[in-house]
Design brief:
The chain is of the alpha+beta class. The chain has a single domain, classed as TIM Barrel (Alpha-Beta Barrel), CATH 3.20.20. About 35% of the residues lie in helices and about 45% in strands. It is built from three helices and five strands; from the N terminus they run H-E-E-E-H-H-E-E. Strands 1, 2, 3, 4 and 5 form a five-stranded mixed β-sheet that branches.
């Protein structure tokens, strides 16, 4: 798949969020939720990890995808709990070396 085909593939994919409960370890009450991005590609649910592996060489496309996913996660969260979402930042140093940062956003 070429870079242009992959970009079009990402643009045409359907996105949704899975909210995983986070429990307080002391009393097992709900503390908050973690937002997880999922893709529906040709009626098959795919995790972001598979997509991110292919995007680590295209920082701009990766950033746009992450930005769109975070907006959807925050906008669609309607519960009165803390929401944890992770922003993945990949900095490509060379063709073989890259650094991944995870930024936690609590809403």
């Amino acid at each position: 798949m070429t870079q242009l085909e992959f970009k079009q593939f990402i643009i045409e994919s359907k996105y949704f969020t899975k909210y995983e409960v986070i429990l307080d370890k002391n009393n097992l009450e709900i503390y908050g939720y973690e937002a997880l991005s999922r893709f529906d590609i040709k009626n098959k649910t795919i995790s972001t990890e598979e997509i991110f592996k292919k995007l680590h060489h295209n920082n701009k496309l990766f950033f746009e995808l992450e930005k769109r996913n975070k907006k959807l996660q925050i906008d669609n969260f309607l519960l009165n709990y803390k929401l944890f979402t992770f922003y993945h930042i990949i900095l490509l140093i060379t063709n073989y070396l890259y650094i991944i940062y995870y930024i936690v956003i609590v809403v």
